[in-house]
Structures are given as C-alpha cells and as structure tokens.
C-alpha cells in the first residue's frame, strides 16, 4: 500500500509556438483544462500500474470534479478533503518541441490540517510507503508519523526547495529528482538508501544500497513532457512496492513515461498497465 500526501491541481494548458518573452503577448493554438498536480499525477500512475494508493490532499469547491477523475483511475480518495480555499492550479505553456513552462498556485494544497494527515495514516502498517513532494505542506509532520510506524518514505524533491529538502532528507528511504535537481541536491543525498535520477533523453540512473542501475529511455516523438517524471516515479514505486526487482521496475516505468509524453496533458495521458505491457512486447 502506498499513501500519497500530494498536490491536486487544475491544469490550464496552453499550446504556444515558443515561451513568451517579457512583455510579449502570444496567441495559443490549443487550450485544455484538466487534472494535474505532481501528487495527483503520481497517484494515478501508481493506480494505473496496478498499485494500491490512498491519496491524502485537499480541494476547494471549484475542484470537486477532479475527485471523479481520480476515482476513475483507481485512486482511493477517502482522505481528500473539501476545504474553503480555492483548488490549486497550474498555468502550463507547452511549445512545439513538447517542452513546458509552469506557474503554480498552491491554493488548497497548502491548507490541509495536521489532524487529517494523522487520521489518514492511522491504519498504515510497517512496510507501507509514504510518498511526498514539494507542492504540499506537512511533509515533515507526515514523515515523523510514518517513521514511528515503520513505513518507508519516498520523496520527489520537486519543485526543488533547499530548505524543504534539508528538513526531509534524513527521514526518507528513496529520493527522486531530475538531472537539474540532482545538481542542486549535491551531496545531501549521500546517506539516502535509494536515489533515482531522471535525465530526460539520457535515461535514468538509480542507486539502491550502493548498487547502481541504469535504464535507457524509449525513442518516441514527444508532444508534451508535462508529468513525465511523475509518471515515471509512480510506475517505479508501484513496481518496487509489488516486489519487482529494480531493473524491470525501471524499464517498465521508462515505457510508461515514454507513452505518456506522446499525448497532450499530464494525468489524462498516463497509460494503464495493459498499454505499457503491449508497448514493451512490441
């Protein structure tokens, strides 16, 4: 079982010829509105990979429709609260090469109460995973509860904030970052048992108890890279939680994220396990 204390956003995605320069006004060629947020993306990836995941988070009244999308993907929403704060959202620009630029509004993601986190983890068992990232608050509070229960803690250190990382780094079992974040992380993760670094087109590097694994990415034509790292970590963690060895878990996650970037959107583009299996068989 994986408990994910994670963000839930309304994604506002604009297709643009290039990212706007200061003072520039651009016409977008396409607009979509949907479910996003690093936390929600990872919960959906876990569920679509066949994992069991309980999402802990908050929405405003303007975002209640997002709960149905999470349920449809197989996510347990028992601990997603409706609160009197607007739902978090992201304004996302996607250029013609598939790269993205994102502006976040935290909203309800940073207004969840400690009592709800405590209640959500009350029945968690030793060996279960707690998944954290930096689009929410109360990560340290949740990690301390998880440690007392003998849970394992995975941490996506993004968006990268040095203060947040320094507070959590000695409490986590697995930390996941991209190549830029890894450089910012420097030697901070030396004592962490499991370190996962996604390097875009250059593949994935993973260290587990001193043993290093590497995985190439699959060559595809990207349409939108938003949520690719979230898809990767969700699939990978679901595999590890199910007892998969690191190398096949890395390979399956690489296939999932490769499929995901060939479609527009974040959460809605995450493939299910049947799609990933067919992709690998081909």
Instruction: Please state the overall shape, judged from the principal axes of the Cα atoms.
Output: globular
* Percentage of β-strand residues: 25-35%
Query: Which residues sit in consecutive blocks of at least 5 with pLDDT less than 50?
Result: none
CATH fold descriptor: UDP-N-acetylmuramoyl-L-alanine:D-glutamate ligase
How can the largest sheet be summarized? 9 strands, mixed
Question: Can you offer a commentary on this structure?
Answer:
The protein has a nine-stranded mixed beta sheet, with helices on both faces. The chain has a four-stranded mixed beta sheet with strand order 3-2-6-7. Helix 7 runs antiparallel to helix 8 (246-260) and helix 8 (246-260) packs across helix 9 (273-281). The protein is globular and about 50 Å long. The protein has 282 residues and is an alpha/beta fold. The mean pLDDT is 95. Helices cover 32% and strands 27% of the residues. The chain starts with a strand and ends with a helix.
Task: Explain the layout of strands and helices.
Elements: E1 2-5, E2 9-15, E3 30-36, H1 38-48, E4 53-59, H2 65-73, E5 76-82, E6 88-94, E7 100-105, H3 114-120, E8 129-133, H4 139-149, E9 152-156, H5 162-168, E10 174-178, H6 179-185, E11 194-198, E12 204-208, E13 211-215, H7 228-241, H8 246-260, H9 273-281
Parallel strand pairs: 1-4, 1-8, 2-6, 4-5, 8-9, 9-10, 10-11
Antiparallel strand pairs: 2-3, 6-7, 11-12, 12-13
